[in-house]
Every structure is written in C-alpha cells, then in structure tokens.
Amino acid sequence: MLTVRDLSCTVSGAAVLDAVSFSLADGETLALIGPSGAGKSTLLSALAGELPFRGMAVSDRSSSVKHKSMLLCPAIRIIREEESVYQTVLSGRAPYKRFFSPFSQLDIQTAEEMICSFGLEAVRRRPLNTLPDSAYKMTLLAHHAAYSAQVLMLDNPEEGLDICSRMRLIRALRKYVFEGKRAVIFATNDLNFASQAADRFLVLKGGKTAAAGGAEIITEELIRTVFRCQKKKKKNIYNGRPEIT
Prior knowledge:
alpha/beta; three-stranded antiparallel beta sheet; 30% helix
C-alpha cells in the first residue's frame, strides 16, 4: 500500500529526517516511536504533503503521497463547536459530496459506523462545546476516520484520552484497518499504547531509523539505547503483547 525509501527532510535549514525507509501493507498499523524531537511528527507531515522532502514515498493507489488516499489527522480543535457530535462526524464525508447536495446513504452509514466504533453513541446529539475532553478528542478522531482514507495518519491520538477511551480507540483502529483493508500510521510517546495498538514499529532517533519490525524489536536494550532510561518489558497475559513498566 505504501512504500517509503530514503526519505530525508530539512526544516529551517536543519536536517530533521535522514534516509528513513519503511513499507506498509493493507490491514497493518504502524507506530512511530522515539524520544521527543526524533522526527515522528515531521515524518507524518512529509507524508501528508505538508513538508517538502527528498527520496521516494508512493502509494499503490497513486504515484504520489499527495493524494486523497492519505490523510493526516491534525492535532487541532474543530472550530464549529456549536455542531453536534453526529454533524461533526458526518462532515468528515464532505469531500465526497457535491456542493449543496445532501449526504448520500453511504455517507450517513459511514458516519453511524464511526460513531459506534469510537464509542460516541451516548453523546451523538450533544454540541462539541459541552463534551468532556475524552469525548471531544474521540469525536475529532471519528470525524477524520469517516473520510475513509486508505492510509490514516494520526499524531499522538491517545493524548488527552482516559483509559476507557484509549481501549475504545485501539479497538476502533483495528476495525478500521481490518474491515476496510486500510492502514494506519500513528506517532506516539506512549510505548504501552503503541505496543497494544500497533502491528509494526518504526523507531526513530535523531531523525534516523534506530529499529524497525514487529513487537519483538521492543526490548529493554532498545529502550535503554533510544530513550536512555531503564524499563522492564513483560508480556501481557491476555494478548501476548509487550508491556513496559
């Protein structure tokens, strides 16, 4: 679905990314992890076409990543806060309808599915400005997921979510990639969230690839080398995924 090869990016004269390469297949979720300043958000912005870069980044649905098959969910607040949760999620389908035309049945069905996936049924009629922080953030994520991009990119999607909302988000992302044969890339500073939500990992340090692969690459030695801290790794007894303590 997506192939990135030797992607390098310079911001304000400083090299932020240096020859980063990876590939992503249908149905996969990739976590970008690394210390603050490693280049995770910059990589997402480059893939979204918001920053110029050198190297190759192509989707099998387009010769360029600057295509509506790719979508970066920005870490910003929605402006029209008088709208309801349902209206906000449905507006994620706006690029698919003609100006002044009503939303199609597919648009409505997709919005309903995202409201259920992201656990927003109980607040669907509430205006955004009356929501608690977790529900607000989940609405923003559902709004972008409703676009149904083939590659959905998220920057710190777990930030500001309570523990129940984080669990719902993990389930929603798994459903998103599985049912639509899509892919998700997300950047995070939370290793435990990454280990529970992702199939594969790209570890960045100083703008370069420090490691890449499945859960087996998340070792205590890697954490010491990349994050410069002592952490213990164990297996979750329910799903076998790594937990960092």
